[in-house]
Amino acid sequence: MTQTESDTDVTALKDFRNTLLGTLLRPGDEGYDEGREVWNGMIDRRPRLISQCAGAADVASSVHFAREHDLEIAVRGGGHNVAGTAVCDDGFVVDLSEMRAVWIDPDARTARVQGGALWGDVDHETQAHGLATTGGVVSHTGVAGLTLGGGIGWLMRKHGLTVDNLRSVDMVTADGEFLRASDHEHPELFWALRGGGGNFGIVTSFEFALHPVGPAVLAGPVFWTANAAAGVLRFYRDFVRDAPDELGTVVKFGTIPPIPVVPEELHWRPAVAVSTCYAGDIEEGKHVLRPLREYGTPLLDLVSRKPYLAHQSGLDSTVLHGWHYYWKSTDLPELSDDLIDVLIDHAFAAESPRSYAVMFHLGGAVSRVPEDATAYAGRNAPHNININGVWRPDEDFAESDTEWTRKFFEALEPHREGVYVNFLGADDGTHRVREAYGERTYRRLADIKAEYDPDNVFHLNQNIEPTP
Ligand SMILES: Cc1cc2nc3c(=O)[nH]c(=O)nc-3n(C[C@H](O)[C@H](O)[C@H](O)COP(=O)(O)OP(=O)(O)OC[C@H]3O[C@@H](n4cnc5c(N)ncnc54)[C@H](O)[C@@H]3O)c2cc1C
Question: How much distance in Å is there from the Cα of 144 to the middle of ligand 1?
């Protein structure tokens, strides 16, 4: 770089900094190292600039600046994506993590949520009015990335995916322009935003429909020893087949976490758990859950009446920021005996006591929305499984548990059907993005991408390439 160019850059940077209400960070600045950290501690990238936006105006000027200076753009919401797409080497991070406000209209039963909010922020405000919408099962997950990929959670069988509750978004386009998308404004773009991920622009706020939920729900896990897992899964297959929409369940394979509600002698014990949330009348819930709670000999039954808010953060301490995570995921059909055998053969073979697999039960309201109503493509899958290798940075499980994750995933090959885009990892590759959408939906998304982001400015994501 010549002296003149360098002077220009310094002046341009200074001018840009003056346009911002938020903070601009460069290597060496106080806060830079915290600013480049994301949830997955394996990701260690050094952007040239991090623009911690205070509002939509900062987002727009950040996009203008990055494009004028030919800097690669990464977009950060909650920073939870396992592939670490919220941060890049040498480029420009448009960071919305300071934009976490949530406004509730209790009469209209809607929430407007800024693009950097976490699910804990949303639940906190909505539950003050006895309301909620489908969100993630860990409260420190970002609203933006989760919503744009589809959004699965405890309430989905009753109230649909997060995207089924999305009414509109305000966003900044690849040209740095403001735009609102809804069923009435840019409807084709709005279709794409409901599942197509961060490919189409930077969302500065989301508007969601809310529903009466709780504030108390009947919820919690029932644990059985790992040796009983095959029987538990066969029972579970029949139990969820006719389950009411109010009942959300997730099967977790791994060890029992050492959290205060668990007796010490059970800490780290290999176990299968069926976690539950009954989003309806508590007495009815007790009746619905009785057969599950009475199946076999549970090691531990933590189902109880509790605030929905507490349930939504109950898993937070089991997936802490800064640990190392390696994921593989797939959608699954109904649990045949063959599939159960594969699950049992692999689920408990990890070496790290923190590694686990989680299998969500979908169906209900998710499957009643027509497949082409939104860009989310896995509506007919009854389950999806996420195989999570997890270890602390100071532990030596990287090789063994990456291998465990891969082998488990490979063994599921004969049963696999599709994948949830938000569970894709860094090494899954573009073919799996196509797998997530299927050819028809992918082509429609690629056409919309060509209209709204023809230069693929937003490509640090599960990328949809614009139709040439
Ligand atoms: C512990 C854990 C639990 C999870 N549980 C669930 C769950 O219950 N249900 C579920 O559906 N998923 C779940 N996920 C997956 C989650 O949906 C994805 O990790 C998602 O990407 C997180 O969003 P984020 O905003 O935190 O991510 P970030 O890492 O900040 O962003 C990921 C990508 O989203 C895009 N993006 C982020 N913010 C914006 C924005 N404002 N505008 C436009 N694009 C943006 C960008 O492309 C970015 O690269 C979980 C993930 C983790 C780690």
Answer: 6
